[in-house]
Structure prediction request, 196 residues.
Amino acid sequence: MNDVFTYKLEDLLYINLTNSCTNSCSFCIRDKCDGLGGNNLWLERSPTASEIISRIPEPLLYPEIVFCGFGEPTMRLDVLKEVAKYLKDKGGITRLNTNGHGNIINKRDIVPELKGLIDIVSVSLNAGTKEEYDRICSPKLPNAFEAVTDFIEKSAKTLPRTVATVVRVPGEDLDIEKARRLATKLGAEFRIRDYE
Prediction:
């Protein structure tokens, strides 16, 4: 049974909450391999909060503990929040890597619920316009790009640190500077991720 619920890359610990996602991005690593760092991240079932917590007895061993994995973590918001509370109670630093669809997935503004639980949120903006976003990310939900920009703006106003990212994909016609300007307008930091 595959139960890689947590895995280490370099000095960070990553939490693999789910394999479900609301995007089908053209650059997604899920379409090219089964995982990272020798870990098969395709889960046979989603873990409970207690299962994840049992694998992180010493959160302070890691500079950051990242909710990421092979899917969209906010699809399992209750588990995410329970684990994040445990980590924060132990003094850990938390980061959420998200596609920014959390509010439409959960049908409410979840950003206030993350306050005090998430130190850094990294949001995959991936484009500077709705047209580019829809082409690159193939979202399964309506108004996805608007949801992402709204999530970034609300996070930037509420959480300690918000970073909007784009992936530089070889051969992809993407206006990175437009995405940078949008991220700045929304109040977020901006980071270009290299294609893996």
Notes: The beta strands are 6-9, 12-15, 35-36, 39-40, 65-67, 94-98, 120-124, 161-168, 189-194. The radius of gyration is 16 Å.
